[in-house]
Amino acid sequence: MTRTSPVDQSALWNGPGGQVWVAQQAILDGLFQPMADLLVAELPETVMQLLDVGCGTGASLLASAAARPATHSTGLDISAPMLALARQRAEAAGLDADFIVADAQRHPLPSAHFDWIQSRLGVMFFEDSQAAFANLHRAATPRAGLRFIAWRSADENPFMTTAERAIGDALDLPPRVPGAPGQFAFADGGRVQRLVQAAGWKDVEVVAVDLPCSIAREDLPTYVGQLGPLGLALRSMPEARAAVLRHQALAAFAPFIEGDRVRVDAACWLVRARA
């Protein structure tokens, strides 16, 4: 298959990208807590087999498993270091969960097995999204539910691109290719609806949601200096130069700071469908 993204997703998430998400798990879980809460609110009482796609270090899976203790939960992710932490967290919490290190687009999941499939920001990275959702459809029981949260456009999420806009010209960042695997791959809600339907899912709804998210102000330097393509670029350059750019980037976040918190409305899609 011809690669549609300048980024090798497996190398990224099993290397520096996945390692920094492990290291900063607490900050990221706090920032995205409203998304995990939204998925729990969507979860029926009757679910017995749950699959969390791109579960990362486990936040949304752990929240759902804790809310539905009779449910067996399976986490699937391409990142071995992130899943290792998710497994530790599930075991420490005494939750009924198992984990698979694999690509959900290609992994031979058991047929007609899961009655609920969900994802928090984990489905925008497939090389072939329609093939991935078709594979998930094969793993779903009749009338199983699908719920996932994905980012809307970069323009609607200025917080997520603030540092990039402030210092991106000074860094050699991978180009953003519209619709290519990555954070904003699902910006076009109509396209998302079409590809999920084409993969076999029914009653597809793509609903715009704006979720109030925040992190502690004291965690902002770590967020800016460590996470994402920009953090990776800063970590790879001489510290004196990186320090100047970090300071410049941090100054650009002033509009989001309220007291001791950094607040942002996350502009997302909530997608609902059934098998």
From TrEMBL:
<keyword id="KW-0808">Transferase</keyword>
<keyword id="KW-0489">Methyltransferase</keyword>
<dbReference type="InterPro" id="IPR029063">
    <property type="entry name" value="SAM-dependent_MTases_sf"/>
</dbReference>
<dbReference type="InterPro" id="IPR041698">
    <property type="entry name" value="Methyltransf_25"/>
</dbReference>
<dbReference type="Pfam" id="PF13649">
    <property type="entry name" value="Methyltransf_25"/>
</dbReference>
<dbReference type="GO" id="GO:0032259">
    <property type="term" value="P:methylation"/>
</dbReference>
<dbReference type="GO" id="GO:0008168">
    <property type="term" value="F:methyltransferase activity"/>
</dbReference>
<protein>
    <submittedName>
        <fullName>Class I SAM-dependent methyltransferase</fullName>
        <ecNumber>2.1.1.-</ecNumber>
    </submittedName>
</protein>
<feature type="domain" description="Methyltransferase">
    <location>
        <begin position="51"/>
        <end position="142"/>
    </location>
</feature>
